[in-house]
Write a structure and sequence with these properties.
Glutaredoxin, elongated, 15 helices, about 375 residues, single chain
């Protein structure tokens, strides 16, 4: 897969491909069945305010008017580029009027500030979505969780097409609606086949850059359906589920699928395991899954230093420092060059931790004294461990 996002640097002790961690507000998730498709009546626009122009209603009108309803966010660079391109399509005074309408969940002050900073005025009105109601009615119902995204609404107030605003299909369908050659069934097929892997990758990158994790997950799931490189996408998905969305149950199902699908590929299992054991937040949410992945990789190949090192880290994470030391010694024996130095450093760390544990146990024993046997008459008593 062609660089969805810059990978997080790997630990100095390993070269496992790096845990891919995208870098904020979540959007809606897609429903099980899409409820808004080409040909359906356009839902009303529900707003809390209008900026840059008067209100516009989506309802049957006598005049021939096409609306390009554009969902965007002021923080999204692709949104900014798309709005500039859409401004050229805004022609409310043409024979068949074309009204571009922006809609965003950002507050009105943020939108005004955004407009003031632009070199060139947009020229079309913007609606402030009321409690995400319009986003839900359009984007969620159409299975969309990213911005920018447009819905082309015909004079009959029905959805004529929807997709990314920079897709060439937008101008193609708009032209057909203006010259009378529009074909609804063809437009429906265009929508279903228009989400290319490249577009989905761009959507994923933008969602990650803005920490829109639900949107990123939607793009990932769509990419997986295209047949794009599975393992790396699944690593991204597992990381998002655990680190960003706290969806532990779903992550657990994914781990079981990975274990079954890639049972014969210990290096790949090790990559999944390392993503979890090397990240305290992810491990704290799925320690069992991390241990299962590390154990499966280790059971399949005990002669790969990186795999052995990962298994040692998993044992350390669950508190088996004594066993982690034994395993890490094996990793040091197997490793070469800079990896041998790094694994040896990890081994010394485990050994210091075990020494501290024993020192703590001895001090605790000295402080509490030897254990005393209670007589039946005395009942519970004695000093508590600190």
């Amino acid at each position: 897969m062609l660089g969805l996002i810059a990978a997080r640097p790997a630990s100095a002790s390993q070269d496992r491909g790096g845990a891919a961690r995208p870098e904020a507000p979540p959007t809606t998730t897609a429903p099980a069945a899409l409820r808004l498709e080409v040909g359906d009546p356009a839902p009303p626009i529900q707003t809390s305010a209008w900026v840059n122009g008067p209100a516009l209603a989506i309802e049957p009108k006598r005049e021939r008017r096409i609306v390009i309803l554009t969902f965007f966010a002021t923080w999204s660079q692709p949104s900014r580029a798309a709005l500039s391109a859409l401004a050229d399509l805004h022609s409310p005074n043409s024979k068949v009027a074309v009204e571009v309408v922006g809609i965003t969940a950002d507050d009105a002050d943020a939108v005004r500030s955004f407009l003031q900073k632009r070199d060139k005025p947009l020229g079309f009105r913007i609606a402030i979505d009321r409690e995400h109601a319009t986003t839900t009615a359009y984007c969620e119902a159409a299975g969309v969780g990213f911005v920018p995204y447009v819905f082309l609404i015909g004079p009959d107030r029905r959805i004529a097409w929807h997709g990314h605003p920079l897709q060439p299909e937008l101008r193609e369908v708009l032209r057909q609606m203006q010259d009378g050659t529009y074909d609804r069934e063809r437009a429906r097929k265009l929508v279903r086949g228009s989400r290319s892997a490249e577009q989905l990758q761009a959507m994923f990158r933008d969602a990650c850059a803005n920490e829109a994790w639900h949107a990123a997950l939607l793009a990932l799931n769509a990419l997986l359906e295209t047949g794009a490189e599975q393992p790396r996408l699944l690593r991204f998905k597992l990381g998002i589920l655990l680190r960003e969305l706290d969806r532990e149950e779903e992550a657990g199902v994914l781990v079981e699928q990975v274990l079954a699908r890639y049972a014969g590929d210990p290096k790949l299992l090790n990559s999944f395991a390392w993503d979890l054991v090397s990240d305290a937040r992810a491990f704290s949410r799925a320690p069992r899954a991390a241990l299962k992945l590390a154990t499966a990789a280790y059971a399949a190949d005990r002669d790969d230093a990186s795999i052995v090192d990962t298994y040692g880290r998993a044992l350390y994470r669950i508190g088996r420092v004594d066993r982690a030391i034994e395993v890490q010694r094996r990793a040091v024996e197997l490793a070469k060059g800079k990896h041998k130095v790094a694994h040896a450093r990890t081994l010394r760390f485990y050994e210091r931790c075990l020494a501290l544990q024993r020192e703590f146990d001895e001090r605790t024993l000295d402080a509490t004294g030897p254990a005393k046997t209670e007589s039946p008459a005395s009942g519970p008593g004695g000093s508590q461990s600190p």
